[in-house]
Q: What sequence folds into this?
């Protein structure tokens, strides 16, 4: 009956079961600086020891608040595309520097080094990096880079054996453009930086067999091209996730006339291309 679907098995095994049973809340993440009301979003990808590359992002956004996995929206699809160029289609695991979405401009910088935030994040990084087969870490954005540097100070031996690529955050060009920066130039600079990191990553990560191999190490052009964004694997999302949660088209956005309404509201809509039902 029906087709067989893959899904994320969740947090049933140690140490993840205890990590998700007791996590920092409003006592640690101040509600003025984080959207704690949407709950913590922990990870995406393999927790069964099969991951060979770890991605460290910044904080979850609207798609992530709904799907309960990180890096699912456009930023996540850009990251998934980078992984494809490293030959990785499933052997990845991702965590963010913050469990909750940052609210406001300065919250991230203010709290990146907070002891309790870093302490809990380091427990995840220990679980995913110490004594595992992860051979490379990619950090996206300055806050992720700081978070990883703080972890390396606690585990210097493990860190010394891991290849690191410290990259610009996938949606930095759009954020910089909102502040008046030149979108095309910032995008080109980021893609050049990502391209330059590919040979090192390819050299340090055993690829998944064999699909996507033609993309291995292929540099980016100066603008986003068809195929650069890759859909989130079905097996990364909770069981029963609708197909369009993996769509390249946007399906969730914070909406509202003022910042309070916007904070309280995420509008979810099935993308036009996924509306397969017959019209009335
Ligand atoms: N979504 C995430 O989960 N992390 C990011 O860094 C960006 C978007």
A:
């Amino acid at each position: 009956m029906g087709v067989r679907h893959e899904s994320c098995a969740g947090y049933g095994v140690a140490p993840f079961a205890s990590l998700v049973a007791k996590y920092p809340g409003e006592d640690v993440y101040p509600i003025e600086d984080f959207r704690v009301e949407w709950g913590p979003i922990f990870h995406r990808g393999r927790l069964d020891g099969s991951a060979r590359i770890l991605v460290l992002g910044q904080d979850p956004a609207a798609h992530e608040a709904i799907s309960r996995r990180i890096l699912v929206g456009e930023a996540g699809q850009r990251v998934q595309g980078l992984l494809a160029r490293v030959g990785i289609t499933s052997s990845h695991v991702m965590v963010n520097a913050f469990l909750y979405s940052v609210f406001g401009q300065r919250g991230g910088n203010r709290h990146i080094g907070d002891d309790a935030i870093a302490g809990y994040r380091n427990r995840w990084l220990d679980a995913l990096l110490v004594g595992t087969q992860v051979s490379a870490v990619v950090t996206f954005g300055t806050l992720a880079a700081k978070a990883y540097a703080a972890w390396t100070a606690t585990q210097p031996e493990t860190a010394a054996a891991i290849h690191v690529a410290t990259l610009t955050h996938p949606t930095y060009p759009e954020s910089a453009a909102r502040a008046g920066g030149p979108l095309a130039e910032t995008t080109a600079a980021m893609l050049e930086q990502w391209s330059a990191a590919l040979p090192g990553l390819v050299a340090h990560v055993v690829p998944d067999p064999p699909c996507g191999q033609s993309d291995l190490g292929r540099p980016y052009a100066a603008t986003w091209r068809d195929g650069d964004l890759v859909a989130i694997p079905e097996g990364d999302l909770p069981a029963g996730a609708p197909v369009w949660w993996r769509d390249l088209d946007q399906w969730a956005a914070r909406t509202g006339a003022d910042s309070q309404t916007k904070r309280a509201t995420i509008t979810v809509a099935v993308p036009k291309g996924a509306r397969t039902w017959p019209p009335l």
